[in-house]
Design a protein that fits this description.
Elements: H1 4-23, H2 32-60, H3 64-68, H4 80-100, H5 102-116, H6 122-143
Helix pairs in contact: 1-2, 4-5, 5-6
Length: 156
């Protein structure tokens, strides 16, 4: 039996519910993002929980002959090196954000991560970076009207 789907679904449901609960105390216009993201995470966790329950319940009714056969369990992470690279970049991004500034750190993060994950075409890396930064600017500065960490070269 594979309990991975069940436990992952429950974890996502708890994280989603916690995000909604914490986001309810934000100002009205800033609460949309955490409440929306938490609600979506909770909603998307339900099919995962359902699949886990079905997998566990059908696995419990198998005969002894089926239990003796070896079955392969998929790996939790397909590419451990890429996962570690992404995690490391996220930690550096989190640490550098208040020091360097939001837009500069985000541009460096997206560019560096794309290159470290194997993208070698400069036009694609630049396009992804510019598109992502434009999307972030539109979301936070225009729609939500939220100040972001100021760039280090603008700070006095």
């Amino acid at each position: 039996m594979n309990y991975r789907d069940l436990f992952s679904g429950i974890a996502f449901l708890i994280i989603g519910a916690s995000t909604v609960w914490m986001g309810k105390d934000f100002f009205a216009d800033a609460a949309y993002v955490p409440i929306g993201a938490g609600a979506l995470m909770g909603a998307f966790s339900l099919p995962l929980i359902w699949r886990g329950v079905r997998s566990v319940s059908t696995g419990a009714h198998r005969t002894q002959a089926h239990r003796t056969q070896a079955h392969s369990v998929p790996a939790l992470v397909d590419h451990p090196a890429r996962f570690a690279t992404t995690l490391g970049c996220c930690l550096v991004y989190y640490a550098a954000l208040p020091i360097v500034g939001f837009y500069t750190t985000s541009a460096l993060f997206i560019s560096l991560l794309a290159v470290l994950l194997g993208e070698r075409r400069p036009a694609v890396v630049a396009g992804i970076t510019l598109g992502f930064i434009t999307l972030l600017y539109a979301l936070f500065a225009v729609v939500l009207k939220r100040p972001l960490p100021v760039e280090f070269f603008f700070a006095t």
